[in-house]
């Protein structure tokens, strides 16, 4: 079952990437916030490096996490108009990166720091909730569903919440209850698939139809 879910995940990721690339270079659409860059990096990490083992998986995940953090920070930070939120996001991002570097290099790359991975999920949750908060109090005439960031935020919030649900049992049940861990992994793979289909739908609804 896990193999089939992985194949569906790879297909979902690839289809979403192809659509985003088509919209950017064929139709010259810029509303998608250069999501194709993030999707391309994800393909390199989740498919190419994961399959070929060109470098250590722990190193690739660490680098991928930092690149993802930088990408989403650059996308969201400029959209915040409330000074407190801008300051909060800047502090959270800086603290997460510094914390990640210091702790990971302290223990080496034989294992991946669970707190670093947990911090990524928390970063996504804080980032998206701040955007939703600002969007609610600073509502304009444009429907929120017509904004690609809305769909991206929904996908990130969903992923962040379920990633916390995924990462904690990994360390609690890895040796105690492997069968339960497999169930959790399958559920999270399903969430990954749903996440990219949300992004795919967001591209169709907000970019193609705009």
Can you count the helices? 7
Report low-confidence residues grouped into runs of 5 or more: none
Please state roughly what percent of the residues sit in beta strands, choosing from under 5%, 5-15%, 15-25%, 25-35%, 35-45% or over 45%: under 5%
Record field, number of beta strands:
0
| Main beta-sheet strand count, sense and barrel state | none
Order of helices and strands: HHHHHHH
* Total domain count: 1
Q: Taking all residues together, what is the mean pLDDT?
A: 87
Tertiary shape: globular
Rounded to an integer, what's the Rg over CA atoms?
A: 18 Å
| SSE-based structural type | mainly alpha
Helix content: over 70%
Please give the alpha-carbon distance between the first and last residues: 38 Å
Protein name: YhhN-like protein
Keywords: Membrane, Transmembrane, Transmembrane helix
Could you characterize the architecture of this molecule?
With 210 residues, the chain is mostly helical. It has one domain. It is built from seven helices and no strands. Helix 1 runs antiparallel to helix 2. The mean pLDDT is 87. Keywords: Membrane, Transmembrane, Transmembrane helix. This is YhhN-like protein.
């Amino acid at each position: 079952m896990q193999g089939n879910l992985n194949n569906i995940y790879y297909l979902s990721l690839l289809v979403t990437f192809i659509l985003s690339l088509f919209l950017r270079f064929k139709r010259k659409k810029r509303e998608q916030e250069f999501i194709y860059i993030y999707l391309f990096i994800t393909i390199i990490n989740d498919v190419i490096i994961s399959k070929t083992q060109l470098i250590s998986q722990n190193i690739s995940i660490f680098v991928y996490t930092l690149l993802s953090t930088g990408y989403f920070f650059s996308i969201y930070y400029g959209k915040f108009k409330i000074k407190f939120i801008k300051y909060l996001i800047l502090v959270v991002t800086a603290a997460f990166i510094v914390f990640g570097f210091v702790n990971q290099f302290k223990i080496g790359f034989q294992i991946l720091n669970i707190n670093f991975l947990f911090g990524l999920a928390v970063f996504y949750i804080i980032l998206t909730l701040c955007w939703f908060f600002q969007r609610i109090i600073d509502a304009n005439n444009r429907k929120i569903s017509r904004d690609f960031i809305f769909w991206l935020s929904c996908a990130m919030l969903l992923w962040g919440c379920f990633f916390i649900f995924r990462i904690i049992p990994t360390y609690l049940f890895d040796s105690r209850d492997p069968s339960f861990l497999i169930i959790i992994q399958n559920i999270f793979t399903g969430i990954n698939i749903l996440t990219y289909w949300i992004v795919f739908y967001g591209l169709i609804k907000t970019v193609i139809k705009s």
